Amino acid sequence: MKRSRVTLADVAAVAKVDRAVVSRVVNKDPTLNIRPETRERVLAAVEELGYRPNVAARSLRTSRAHMFGLFIPDFANPVYAEIIKGAEAEAASQGYVLVTGSASGAALGDYMDRIGQGRIDGLLLAGTGDESGLIAQLDRAAIPWLMLNNRSRSVKRYVILDDARAAALAVEHLVRLGHRRIAHLAGPSRADTATRRSAGYSAAMREAGLPEGPVVAADYTPAGGAAAMARLLAGPERPTAVFVANVASAIGAMEGVRTAGLEIPRDVSIVAVHDLELAGYLNPALTTVRMPLGELGRRGVTLLAALEPDDTVAEVLAGPIELIQRRSTAPPVS
C-alpha cells in the first residue's frame, strides 16, 4: 500500500508541540524563542518520520520559488563540477533547489525568462563574462545575485578565492626546487581570476629576487594551453618551469611539451592552479595547488540566501589552499 505523505501535524504529534512551532523550526525562523530541548525534539521527530517540506505549498505562502540559479561559463571545464557540488549540497540543506546552466545564448534566454516569471530567488554568477545586462534585470526585479570567484568593478557583490596566494605557492615550490627561469602560462586577459593569479606570480618572483619570465595568455581549455605552451617554448630562452593558471590549460600545456620533443619534468616542470582527481592519473601526474572549490559553492549559496538585493559583499575565502606535489615538477637539470 502506498505510504501517505508525512505532514506537519504528524511531526507535531510526535514532538508534542503545536504545528506552528514545527513549521518555524523547519524553516529556521530566527525569531522563534523555544527551549533547546524542544527544538531538538522537533528535529528528532522530523528525522524519525522522514518529513520533507512541501516546497510548492511553501512557495505559494511565501511568494518564493525556493530555487537558486548558478551560471558557469562552460560545462566542459571540470573545475566547475566541484563548485556545483558544494552549491547543491548547501542549497539542499536550506530547502532550495539549484538549477545550473552555462552562459550560452540559449541558456541565458531561458534564465532571463525564469527571472522575469519570479521562478528564481537568487543567482550565482561564476565568471560568465559580461553579465551587465543580466545584472541590470536582476536589480530591476530586486532579486539577489552574487559573483563567484569573479569581481565587478562597479558593484561589490562577490566571494572569491585567494588566487594570488595560490600562484605564490606554485612559484615558491618551483623556486625551492632550484628553478630560476620560470614562465607563466596565464589565463585570458578578461578573466578576473587570471589577473589575480598573474599578480601572485609577479609578486612571488619579486620576493624570490628573480626576473619574471615570459608570460603568454590562453583560455582555460586544453587547446588553449597547448597553443600557449608552443609559443613559450619557441622563445629565445626556454624556461625550465612553467606556472599554469588553470588545470585544464595545464593538460594541454603538457601535450605541448611532448609535441616539442621534450620531457616533463626533465626538460620542463609544470605546476597548475586547481587540483582534480584526474590530475593524479596524467602522465606524469600533475603537481597542482588545491583550492576550496566546494567551499566556494557552499559559501556562495549561504550568502545568497541571506542577502538583500542591495547588500554589499566583498569576501575572500582564505583557504584551505595547499600544494599537491606530484611527478610533473623536479629540480632543473644542470
What are the salient characteristics of this protein?
single chain, six-stranded parallel sheet, six-stranded mixed sheet, 12 helices, about 45% helix, Peripla_BP_I, Lambda_DNA-bd_dom_sf, LacI family transcriptional regulator
What would your notes on this structure say?
The chain is of the alpha/beta class and 334 residues long. Helices cover 43% and strands 16% of the residues. The protein is built from 12 helices and 12 strands. The strands form 2 sheets. Strands 2-1-3-4-5-11 form a 6-stranded parallel β-sheet, sandwiched between helices. Helix 1 packs across helix 3 (36-49). It is elongated, with a radius of gyration of 24 Å. Residues 55-63 have low confidence and may be disordered.
Broad shape:
elongated
* Low-pLDDT regions: 55-63
Q: Return the structural class.
A: alpha/beta
- Nearest-integer average pLDDT: 86
Q: How big is the Rg?
A: 24 Å
Spatial order of the strands forming the largest sheet:
2-1-3-4-5-11
Fraction of helical residues: 40-55%
Biggest sheet overview: 6 strands, parallel
In percent terms, what proportion of residues is strand? 15-25%
Query: Helix and strand string, N-terminal first?
Result: HHHHEHEHEHEEHEHEHEHEEHEE
Keywords: DNA-binding, Transcription, Transcription regulation
Domain HTH lacI-type: 6-62
Protein name: LacI family transcriptional regulator
Concise overview:
The chain is α/β, with parallel strands linked by helices. About 45% of the residues lie in helices and about 15% in strands.
Architecture blueprint of SSEs:
Layout: H1 8-15, H2 19-26, H3 36-49, H4 55-62, E1 67-72, H5 79-93, E2 97-102, H6 105-116, E3 122-125, H7 132-140, E4 145-148, E5 157-161, H8 163-176, E6 182-186, H9 192-207, E7 215-217, H10 222-233, E8 241-244, H11 247-259, E9 269-273, E10 287-290, H12 293-306, E11 313-317, E12 322-324
Parallel strand pairs: 1-2, 1-3, 3-4, 4-5, 5-11, 6-7, 6-8, 8-9, 9-10
Antiparallel strand pairs: 10-12
Helix pairs in contact: 1-2, 1-3, 2-3, 5-12, 8-9, 10-11
Domain HTH lacI-type: 6-62
Protein name: LacI family transcriptional regulator
Keywords: DNA-binding, Transcription, Transcription regulation
